């Protein structure tokens, strides 16, 4: 038998090193190719760093891995967070230092983004206007500003935040198709198509509700 086909005995240290490298590979973001920082999951089940996926989705509407169309905003992947917590103690001092530096960079990035968002809301309140109006077409920058709030809030706070723009359950339930299309484009929602009737407005309303309550 060819010796190259024989199993090779491994020391315990080798096995631990192999398991560590395998686990590290599973916990790497496919956008930056580094260990996840605040893992967020898409509805297609692929996970990325929050910062990586948010920046990616500003220019792209498909998953970086499987290229499926993204119809819902990414959500916090708490399961992967738990895996990270159990894995990071096994990192070397250098790896831990690099990870902490990246965490700080990501934190500063979102703090700066949120400050821009707060300033925009404050300015609108001082002028007695909505800081954005869901029924008006938004610029790329306005879409980016709105998404900062989507990323920051959850539950009831998220719903109240959306209501600041007029993006409410009542709006979704009662608006005519043209207004729903504008709203969907403003929040970067996928517009579902039906082979028989064109746009599926019932499904579009469901997608918009999911964005408000995710």
Automatic annotation (TrEMBL):
Give GO MF terms, alphabetically. single-stranded DNA binding; ubiquitin protein ligase activity; zinc ion binding
Q: Which GO terms describe its biological process?
A: DNA damage tolerance; protein monoubiquitination
Question: What organism does the record attribute this protein to?
Answer: Acrasis kona
- Per its UniProt entry, which superkingdom is the organism in? Eukaryota
The top of its lineage is: Eukaryota, Discoba, Heterolobosea, Tetramitia, Eutetramitia
Matches recorded under InterPro entries: Rad18, Znf_RING, Znf_RING/FYVE/PHD, Znf_RING_CS
Going by the UniProt record, its keywords in alphabetical order are: Metal-binding, Zinc, Zinc-finger
**UniProt protein name:** RING finger protein
Q: Where is the RING-type domain?
A: 29-67
């Amino acid at each position: 038998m060819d010796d190259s086909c024989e199993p090779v005995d491994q020391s315990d240290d080798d096995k631990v090193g192999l398991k560590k490298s395998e686990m590290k590979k599973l916990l790497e973001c496919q956008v930056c190719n580094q260990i996840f920082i605040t893992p967020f999951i898409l509805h297609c089940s692929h996970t990325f760093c929050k910062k990586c996926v948010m920046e990616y989705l500003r220019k792209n509407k498909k998953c970086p891995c499987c290229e499926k169309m993204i119809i819902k905003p990414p959500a916090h992947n708490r399961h992967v967070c738990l895996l990270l917590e159990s894995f990071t103690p096994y990192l070397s001092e250098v790896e831990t230092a690099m990870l902490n530096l990246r965490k700080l960079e990501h934190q500063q990035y979102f703090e700066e983004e949120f400050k821009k968002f707060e300033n925009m809301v404050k300015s609108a309140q001082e002028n007695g206007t909505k800081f954005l109006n869901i029924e008006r077409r938004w610029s790329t920058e306005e879409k980016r500003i709105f998404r900062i709030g989507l990323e920051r809030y959850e539950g009831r706070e998220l719903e109240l935040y959306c209501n600041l723009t007029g993006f409410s359950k009542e709006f979704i339930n009662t608006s005519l198709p043209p207004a729903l299309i504008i709203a969907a484009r403003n929040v970067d929602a996928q517009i579902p198509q039906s082979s028989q009737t064109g746009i599926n407005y019932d499904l579009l309303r469901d997608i918009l509700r999911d964005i408000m309550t995710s």
